[in-house]
Amino acid sequence: MAIVKDAKLGLSDLVRGVAQKEGVDPEFVRKGVANGRIVIPSNPVHSPDPCGIGEGLSVKVNVNIGTSRDIQKIEEELEKARIAVRYGADTIMDLSTGGDIDLVRKKIIETVRVPVGTVPIYQTGLKAARESAVVDMDEDDIFNGIVKHAKDGVDFMTVHCGITEESVEYLKKSKRVTDVVSRGGSFLVAWILYNEKENPLFKNFEYLLELATEHEFALSLGDGLRPGCIHDATDGPQLQELIILGDLVRRAREKEVQVMVEGPGHVPINQIEANVRVEKTVCDGAPFYVLGPLVTDIAPGYDHISGAIGGALAAYFGADFLCYVTPAEHLSLPDVEDVKEGLIASKLAAHAADLGKGRGLERDLRMAQARKALDWERMFKEALDPEKGRLYRSRGVTKESEGCSMCGDVCAIKILRDYLKKDGVC
Amino acid sequence: MAIVKDAKLGLSDLVRGVAQKEGVDPEFVRKGVANGRIVIPSNPVHSPDPCGIGEGLSVKVNVNIGTSRDIQKIEEELEKARIAVRYGADTIMDLSTGGDIDLVRKKIIETVRVPVGTVPIYQTGLKAARESAVVDMDEDDIFNGIVKHAKDGVDFMTVHCGITEESVEYLKKSKRVTDVVSRGGSFLVAWILYNEKENPLFKNFEYLLELATEHEFALSLGDGLRPGCIHDATDGPQLQELIILGDLVRRAREKEVQVMVEGPGHVPINQIEANVRVEKTVCDGAPFYVLGPLVTDIAPGYDHISGAIGGALAAYFGADFLCYVTPAEHLSLPDVEDVKEGLIASKLAAHAADLGKGRGLERDLRMAQARKALDWERMFKEALDPEKGRLYRSRGVTKESEGCSMCGDVCAIKILRDYLKKDGVC
């Protein structure tokens, strides 16, 4: 099965599946996949439930999980994966960097029916780093890592193809404060500087496209030079990399390889719309996958909220895919609770963006009707997190069967019920 | 001391105090106060630290606290007030509706040096409601309540003057789902319907202005008809009330009474900018004080995040004053932890909006520099919540003295430090 090729020919089951889930015309999805504006990550080895990402579809949310050198409990990562799916994650990325990385990846792919993504260079780089140094990564190892992930069933992979010898020179001259905050990006910048050679993922991009065609995984072009703070947002190195990614999008499309583009990061509110519009122009409408973006640097412990603000705005302006951020961002590996909190913040942002574009309004209307009726069970049913709703309400030790402990007997809804009889409306 | 009158004559100490705190020209603040675009709530009985709200100043955040019928612990409310001040609340509103309401208010005013606001109709209405019915409120009692609060030192008061017999008729014909969700609004709508008389706060607005002049409190014109769900946002009843508030702003300014305007509530992302621009036009630039706004209805337990998204956007487009929302919104009275979480979400939103307008960038730069240096103490110092940052980092059981448990040895900053030597930059 070749997703883009098939879409050019007619309606495939995958395309129909996405259209049904989104409540849109299958022909719309088919055209989007054929022209690259919609991506459906689906490696036949994994064959996840259909998930479309891109123009005209609902905003999707990704959850990053995975071990680190310091925390390597496989069962906990699987629990994170299950919680993520339960609360509506559209995709999961396994970013493991500790313990038996191959095993974690395989277990996650086995466990979830949503598309799974990885960043293969992490594994290649840290193996080199732990044996000698990250700059000793072998070119073949980089591609072998990608093949290994593909054979395990990974549906989409982040590849930092846009970092080049030229962009590293440009970075050296820049006034950036935080230089490089992408882990994969730092591996490749270091590798280029030390080896004085071109980035293998850029130099051999055609080979990468062959692998993607053979194994049918989607590419997610990483933004290794994304800004790491508000000061660095929308600067030269970021935009220069984006221009290169735009070229690579066109090359991938020529070969009928599915491709998305990753974006920042840290962006102040006044630059978010511009970031989305520039990506959509430079990359010819390729699905835009943003990390956050975080709208301030001063919120450690609350970066999920910072990311929800930026994500809602980015998605409203056209970003298609939000990578969640947890409260642990910048501080530690997230635990299960952090994963849930981060995911719900991001789902909230995605839904708010959808509402802003007129999508998904029915659910909010049902919630409003339940509130008007003071029907708590219906409210919890429509809530992003029914359990938390119940917890807060029970905690309030209300004496009311209908109202809550905030207003008690001075509940606006109850007062109006007695006095406001609406004309022709019950 | 008459704040507006004084500002028309020259620089007062209050004006100078605000200018110093904001880092702006005192003449700018003086003009803003004189023409009503800046409000400095300051009742001489309380005489809080100077706090300016309005055009050209940093975005301010209010924290609501107060007892309810079900939860009446005065000491817990005082603890909320202290926590709020500690984490940067600019003002506190006491919305108590349970226990010894007079005592709670007096204690809060004694405890905090930030301006304190109240909604006097709550106390009047619930006294009537508990004795007979809210519609039995006596007109004199409504004004006597206001005088009592003023004499206690309340710096600003929400008064629902914009609900009129006409707007109630309009409401009855509307297709609203949640009708009225403002408590004060519901009291007055019920009162008007039952008594078939005009809203005393509207009818006797000139008398209210006399009281405000005599006791020197600022008015915050409540939006009793604010939408209570996404479906009702920016509808006829809301806008009709706003037009009335615009007229009342002009009348207040004629009498040199300080006045702000309250706004929604529940607003989808695509209508937030319009809401701010309409208020600024219709109310001639009067400071705009918004509750949230919440960008979706389906987030019980996470409404502080919904409010942070809406608040950041509203403030970026010109709202001056954000009323925080806690995770307990719609579910129960918030506890101390909820107050803190809600406040920080709102502070984050206010700061993000300030950054978007080019204000406050230095703090984010210091944070970025601390991150680049992996200097954790400096990071915590710049954080909105140093304690939470420390907690997350310590929880990560990192083996690294410099990095964190997320990336461990594959920390982008550490890798780059070894390989990237920037030209002329250390």
Structure description:
The structure is a homodimer of 426-residue chains. With 426 residues, the first copy, chain A, is α/β, with parallel strands linked by helices. The first copy, chain A, folds into 2 domains: 59-356, TIM Barrel (Alpha-Beta Barrel), CATH 3.20.20; 361-422, no CATH class. Helix content of chain A is 51%, strand content 9%. Chain A is built from 19 helices and 10 strands. The first copy, chain A, has an 8-stranded parallel β-barrel, surrounded by 6 helices. In chain A, helix 4 (74-86) packs parallel to helix 15 and helix 8 (165-173) packs antiparallel against helix 12. The longest helix of chain A is centred in the last third of the chain and has 21 residues, at 336-356. The radius of gyration of chain A is 23 Å and the shape is globular. The N and C termini of chain A lie far apart (55 Å). Chains A and B meet through helix 6, helix 8, helix 9, helix 14 and helix 15 of A and helix 6, helix 8, helix 9, helix 14 and helix 15 of B.
